[in-house]
Amino acid sequence: MNHFIHIFMITFFSLLVFFISVSNCACDTNPTNLAGCSCAGHPGGRYCGFELGCTNGFDDIYQCSGAGDGGICHFGPCKNGCLADSPNSKCQ
After folding, report:
1. How far apart are the C-alpha atoms of 64 and 6, rounded to whole Å?
2. Residue 27 confidence class, pLDDT cut points 50, 70, 90
3. CA gap 15, 62 in Å, rounded
């Protein structure tokens, strides 16, 4: 019984940490931050602003929905620049 409780607690807290970390990713759809950006021709994933033709957030990180609906989210600037590795680009 003790073993079951330990496994349950570890699983519960792992899931809690996962959901908290995922829910903190705020999607910014402010038109100023999306100026010039286009996900056309890009599968879903993360992209640097320069990969999407963005005029304001050149080194910011963005998310394309991949649903063919043009959905795009701005996640914010990269402190040390953006590392292009689409569709899994990331901040440095």
Report:
1. 39
2. confident
3. 25
What does the alpha-carbon distance between residue 65 and residue 44 come to, in Å, rounded to a whole number? Answer: 5
Name the pairing type of β-strands 60-64 and 72-77: antiparallel
CA–CA separation, 40 vs 7, rounded Å?
45
Give yes or no for residue 24 having a pLDDT over 70.
no
Domain locations along the chain: 27-91
pLDDT at residue 2, rounded to an integer: 72
Mean pLDDT over 65-86 rounds to 86
d(CA 90, CA 5): 38
Which structure tokens are listed for 66?
């991949």
Check: CB of residue 39 under 8 Å from CB of residue 65.
Answer: yes
The CA-based diameter of the chain, rounded to the nearest angstrom, is 59
pTM of the full structure: 0.67
